[in-house]
Give the backbone structure.
Amino acid sequence: MNQSTSSKNERDTPPEKVKELFSYPKYWAECFGTAPYLPMSREEMDELGWDSCDIIIVTADAYVDHPSFGMAVVGRLLEAQGFRVGIISQPQWSDAEAFKTLGQPNLFFGVTGGNMDSLINRYTADLRLRSDDAYTPDALPGKRPDRSVIVYSQRCREAYYDTPIVIGGIEASLRRIAQYDYWSNKVRRSVLIDSNADILLYGNAERALTELAHQIAAGRSVDELWQLRGTAIIKNELPGGWTEINSTRIDWPAKIDDIPNPYDFHDKKKKQGSAVAAPNNEAQTDVIRIIPLPLQRKAKFDEKTSFIRLPSFNKVVNDSALYAHASRVLHQEANPYNAKPLVQKHGTQDVWINPPPIPLETEEMDWIFDLPYQRRPHPHYGDSRIPAYDMIKTSVNIMRGCFGGCTFCSITEHEGRIIQSRSEDSIIKEIGKIRDQVPGFTGTISDLGGPTANMYKLNCKSQKIQSTCKRLSCVYPNICKHLKTDHSATTNLYRRARAVPGVKRVAIASGLRYDLALKDPKYIEELVTHHVGGYLKIAPEHSEDKTLSKMMKPSISAYDEFKTLFDKFSKKAGKEQYLIPYFIAAHPGCDEEDMLNLSMWLKEHKFKPDQVQTFYPSPMALATAMYYSERNPLAKVRYKSEKLKVIKDIDQRRLQKAFLRYHDEKNWPILRKALQDMGRSDLIGNGSQHLIPPVPQKKVIKKRNNRRR
């Protein structure tokens, strides 16, 4: 792509200068060197010559020293900063004794629920207990508590009351504000309140964690670091001199006149200009100005000292429309280059959420993935098998983030929309490490991807445009014209990877954004020719535009286009290969008619899915806001807005799932009844035009005989 030098400089120059992760002066404990494994016992600490840990990480997962496991990344990152880091993995939580195993940390406890939310890890979408846990030795269930972050934090507080507690990971990240909780069927408070932690780090938190650790080591308190990006903190009083943008209601009158601000009573404040006030029982007298949301664009104020007030916890609990509105605002304030702090009242306290961290540069990503990981579970586990490790031990993470914005997915909320990519050399180096270090390596790299397989090095063409953008997705409802769609960097990476000595095959197992891949057929040819082993998993999710629009997914026609190219390049390579599509049942906005049309589409294309998914309302997702509120936060929320069709009854959810497995005779009885109720008995029969067969004649006769008796 030809661009002028000035355009290139504009794109490559970050708008905010940040400190590189590897540029911090090392903490004094650096003299102890690098630990083979981060210690899990006093005996290991003694072998290392440690009298104490500076930081102790408490995790709900087994400790695997691999860059795909959060506790390993965080631990090795802090170790590289010079700190002594210990691990308490899957402790017994009935009392505080297990949390004293390594003694009292000098700086803080870091608490995480692990690589998955603890409740999603333990329960199915039907709220049934899972029989195994992939992140536990031998997949044993029951090794983590429900709401692990809350439970672990409370036990840390009991063990050492005065030690600061820092919570992070996906469980804390997705619960940073008041959130609908599917498992209790109610809106819960921010996990920061319930856990009694001192600070919450959300997203990929390397920047915030590094700065926090060095500042606490230098003697500063957590309260002094209240403006640290990528964090949330509880505040009893809001800072003076700031402007509050009031977004606590959705029914502002069409015209709002400027009226005196009742909180603008200090002379110093008056000199800074007149203010606009709105009815707001949650306002703080420390705030210099209060601006109703409709006047935000008209009023003059300092953007750098302004925040958005969300509807309070009490309001979103009692008003689902306000919950949907708060969710919409949260997702609109996700761009680290233009997001404002968010504030939400919980009782007498405010949860202050700072803007997301500035994305990592390629050099920083390379540095993190080059830390001295052992790439295997801690020896403490012996020969026990950890399924999650088996799945990823020969895979390579090449990037972070996802700009797809699928409403049912939590990746965007956690990792952000801006893609952070590693260099080719760093990735090739890691492939060499896998070849040389992973026991039993057979020559196959099981995946070369990340949240999405084909977003490597795809970013906005203009940093200026990116810094002002508030789109929820770069590829929906259409692919943004400012998005780089050239996949040549990924194609070149694939070619280098499969040329590494000792590597026989490089598979691609991460989800593929096929509408994006259509922009570069050469990438599809490379993928299909060399990196598909007979089957490629792909996720159109649905066939009907009405439902797809609530998912922020492309039309099924994009799938058809991709399949055409997939078949073409498979034939050219002399291979017989197939697409395995994934679909979701019971998504908000999806009714029985949509599911019927989807099942007919499946039958027409001769698909008989074995593994199907029922919509799972994960915390903070936009689709979860749809599920709870029955409103669509993708558009401006109004009380008069049309309600969405939302399936909450367990039997109806199972019916929608049955439509996906129309070929399973166990589902035929409920499908027959559903089709009759829908007036579509014409789809019951033995012909090719029918969806399911009628009741067998033998059963009909038997039923008649039973009635006669």
